[in-house]
Amino acid sequence: MNDWKKRLDMVYSTNPDYHFNEESEANIETVAEGKQLLRISLDKRNRKGKSVTLITGFSGSDEELNTLGKLLKTKCGVGGSTKDGDIIIQGDHRNKVLDILQKEGYVKSRII
Hints:
alpha+beta; Translation Initiation Factor Eif1
């Protein structure tokens, strides 16, 4: 990526000694699967009466979250998404998701 594209939010500086500090991506340390406490719940709020299985409590990078979300969607045979550190699976699949997570090593997962 070009240097100027990284500084698009910077308009002008009158300080001749100013050096633009690039924001480095925060390295989110992933907690081991066996130590993560994932909470599985059924959510119907703001979804026009449709129910979804909501998995919260994941700590790790967005890439790892997307990978886990894709695995759960594939194993359950439904759609869903990952947003704001949560995994959303369409429909009520709490028990199936719990079984899948425990087989993947997330032994502290639980249904709320």
